[in-house]
Amino acid sequence: MKAGPGGRKAYDDINITPMLDLAYVLLVIFILMATASVQGIKVELPKASSSVSLAQPKTIALTVNNQGQIFMDAFPVTISDLETRLRNAKAQNPEVPIVLKGDATAQYGKITEVLDLCRRLDLNKVGLVTGKQTAG
Q: H/E element holding 33?
């Protein structure tokens, strides 16, 4: 290579290593952020000595948070909206499984209202979600 003006050498090729390093870092960040986002509403579950997972592919997740708000598959609903949606789900699958997550500090009346609605609609596959009890 010949030295250019000022004694500097001319570059024949482009070094793409820093660009690839940046692309790999962005890819790792994207993968971590995509797997970290979990659908659902964050609630503090009550503890039980044994808990069994009732989750199935077509399971409807009902959640009552500590403010008494009701969610169906992470979308806020009123009790009348919930009744309409559950009727539609039962029309498609009469044996649709439902899991109910209630915050440990939630209003007991709201959870009972949701359970009563499921009973009135003759939805029998209803399970309550609890966390595992910690020893100590």
A: helix 17-36
